[in-house]
Amino acid sequence: MPTTRPILPRLLGAVTVAALALTAAACGDDDDSSAFCDEMREVDAELQATDPTTDEGFQAALDRLREVEPPPEIEEAWATFLDAYQALADVDTSDPEAIDALDTEQLAGAEQAWNEIADHLEEECGLEV
Fold first, then answer.
1. How far, in Å, CA of 119 to CA of 128, rounded?
2. What is the tens place of the pLDDT at every residue in 29-49?
3. Distance from C-alpha of 29 to C-alpha of 97, rounded to nearest angstrom
4. Measured between alpha carbons, how far is 110 from 60 in angstroms, rounded to an integer?
5. How far is Cα 13 from Cα 43, in angstroms, rounded to an integer?
6. pTM check: above 0.85
7. Taking the mean position of all CA atoms in its chain, how far away is CA 53?
8. Which of 32, 35, 57, 78 has a beta carbon 3.0–4.6 Å from 51's, enabling a disulfide?
9. What is the DSSP letter of 50?
10. Phi-psi region at 78: left, alpha or beta (left = phi > 0; alpha = psi -120 to 50)
């Protein structure tokens, strides 16, 4: 069974980028995307005070991201990404066996979902992720 370790750091990095690197850009004209971009800026401001590398910070980021209403075009990707994020929150990342037991298909799906979300953030919000 292949290890998920290479995927895990990328996914954690994506979470950190999503939570902490969403400032200083104008959104597109679409109302759903505009509201999403505005909310992501609020999330960024709120999460700047947390450390997403701690268990508490990781869960706080997840809880806050679950409150975000994504635009319809990325709704499915958003749910996929957050479900994998929850799986990570539920695992003891200091335990290599627990990491190896993570669902590699779910993590790969989350990586694909993140790519879709990142494209949306770049194209609709003008954010470089």
1. 9
2. 456 678 888 888 788 778 778
3. 47
4. 19
5. 17
6. no
7. 13
8. 57
9. S
10. alpha
State the residue for tokens 């799986």: 87
Is the four-CA dihedral 98, 7, 82, 59 of positive or negative sign? positive
State the Cα angle at 8 between 7 and 10, rounded to 5°.
65
* Residue whose structure tokens are 């800026």: 41
For residue 22, the one-letter residue type is L
Q: Residue 26 has what DSSP assignment?
A: -
In degrees, rounded to 5, the angle at the alpha carbon of residue 26 between the alpha carbons of residues 21 and 28 is 115
Taking the C-alpha atoms of residue 27 and residue 8, their distance in angstroms, rounded to an integer, is 30
**pLDDT tens-digit readout, 73-111:** 999 999 999 998 888 888 887 888 888 888 888 888 888
Structure-token pair, residue 5: 């370790």
Structure tokens that stand for 20 in this block: 């902490």
